[in-house]
TrEMBL record:
One of its GO terms (molecular function) is protein serine/threonine kinase activity. Residues 1-22 form the signal peptide. The keyword Magnesium does not apply. InterPro entries: Kinase-like_dom_sf, Leu-rich_rpt, LRR_dom_sf, LRR_N_plant-typ, LRR_R13L4/SHOC2-like, Prot_kinase_dom, Protein_kinase_ATP_BS, Ser-Thr/Tyr_kinase_cat_dom. Pfam families: LRR_14 (PF23598), LRRNT_2 (PF08263), PK_Tyr_Ser-Thr (PF07714). Its main location: membrane. GO terms for cellular component: membrane. The chain crosses the membrane at residues 236-259. Keywords: ATP-binding, Leucine-rich repeat, Membrane, Nucleotide-binding, Repeat, Signal, Transmembrane, Transmembrane helix. ATP binds at K327. This is Protein kinase domain-containing protein.
Length: 398
């Protein structure tokens, strides 16, 4: 009931804002400001992370959790893990330049707005670990540039829209742990997760959930009787087959143990050159460890730019000749592991200011966490001030 009230309130506020903004001249208000303010109003923000979202503002690019394109349009909305509740306003459909929406790990409820289908530039939509209910909008099938869709761990019901099957660019679709039903459509995504939907993957269901667990092979009692009936030749064949299978399993087990041993002995391991389908961090580039290791000449001490409380910063040169600054984060396991690191990277990437370096990319392996920034040949502000500082003698200081 509380969620329904938030959703009705959000719809009413959005309608009111639409009516009011329609009476303004095209130059009188930024329509993206109106849309973002409608989103803010429909959400309950206990930590006031949206405090500087002001309806009277002309430019939303300086707002927290908002990223803009070079020409000033809102391109990313990132509010993961902010304890937000309430509902998601349909006004999000008016942010037509959006490429990334990250609202995971909150408590947002109500329906997923069908207006999201208007965002033709959207590449990443992550609404996982919330309280969304109702159907998955079929309008999501209009998102021709969509790569990553995460709707897992909500309370969504109904069928998975058939319209998603026409999205050829999909890499990951995760709708696991909802209340979905019906036969899943055939999607072009490399990874398609539906586990945790009892009406799809339950024991009585005949749907193919092999993306999550393998189907059992048919094996009847008649087969068993047939195998042990017959002549001595059949018994010999069975014994040979059993011995061969046991030998194969032993070899497989030894190979697996050896592989894990070699893997643990490696200093690093490389990820695929393409993005990991399990990781979605919007516009950031995911580098391989091998690439950054080569860029810094094996993290040579001669390439150290500075040392801080969070790690060492190295100068590096990528394959295309671009110079970068690579921060090698220390105590990478102390902050909560891979999920916490991804969340922190998302938050850093949303920090936009003319005096701050914009995060270019990252690298995450079992043993390393690295952040990649553009290289500034003039150094930091502190180093420049120190270089030109006037040394005061003792009498002058007193």
């Amino acid at each position: 009931m509380k969620c329904l009230l938030w959703e009705v309130l959000g719809m009413a506020i959005w309608a009111l804002v639409e009516i009011c903004s329609a009476t303004l001249s095209p130059s009188g208000v930024n329509y993206e400001v109106v849309a973002l303010f409608a989103i803010k109003t429909a959400l309950h923000d206990p930590h006031n992370v949206l405090d500087n979202w002001d309806i009277n503002s002309v430019d939303p690019c300086s707002w927290r959790m908002v990223t803009c394109t070079p020409d000033g349009y809102v391109s990313a909305l990132g509010l993961p893990s902010q304890n937000l509740s309430g509902s998601l306003s349909p006004g999000i459909g008016n942010l037509t330049k959006l490429e990334s929406v990250l609202l995971q790990n909150n408590a947002i409820c109500g329906n997923i707005p069908a207006e999201i289908g208007k965002l033709e530039n959207l590449q990443t939509l992550d609404l996982s670990n919330n309280k969304f209910d109702g159907d998955i909008p079929s309008s999501l099938g209009e998102l021709g540039n969509l790569n990553y869709l995460r709707l897992n761990n909500n309370s969504l019901s109904g069928q998975i829209p058939e319209s998603l099957s026409k999205l050829d660019g999909l890499t990951l679709v995760d709708v696991s742990f909802n209340n979905l039903s019906g036969r899943p459509p055939k999607l072009p995504a490399r990874t398609f997760k539906v586990i945790g939907n009892s009406l799809i993957c339950g024991q009585s269901s005949k749907n193919n959930c092999s993306a999550i667990y393998p189907e059992a092979l048919p094996f009847t009692s008649n087969n068993v009787r047939g195998q042990y009936a017959g002549t001595k030749k059949h018994h010999v064949a069975i014994a040979f087959g059993t011995s061969f299978s046991a030998l194969f399993l032993i070899v497989l087990f030894v190979s697996l143990v050896w592989w894990r041993y070699r893997r643990n002995q490696q200093i690093f391991f490389d990820l695929n050159d393409s993005y990991d389908p399990e990781v979605c961090l919007g516009h950031l580039r995911r580098f391989t460890y091998k690439e950054l290791r080569a860029a810094t000449d094996h993290f040579s001490s001669k390439n150290i730019l500075g040392t801080g409380g969070f790690g060492i910063v190295y100068k590096g040169s990528l394959n295309d000749g671009t110079f970068v600054a690579i921060k090698r984060v220390k105590d990478y396991n102390a902050a909560g592991g891979e999920i916490q690191f991804q969340t922190e990277v998302e938050m850093i990437s949303l920090a936009v200011h003319r005096n701050l370096l914009r995060l270019w990319g990252f690298c995450s392996t079992e043993n390393e966490r690295l952040l990649v920034y553009p290289y500034m040949p003039n150094g930091s502000v502190a180093s420049r001030l120190k270089e030109y500082a006037v040394q005061l003698k003792l009498p002058r200081r007193s």
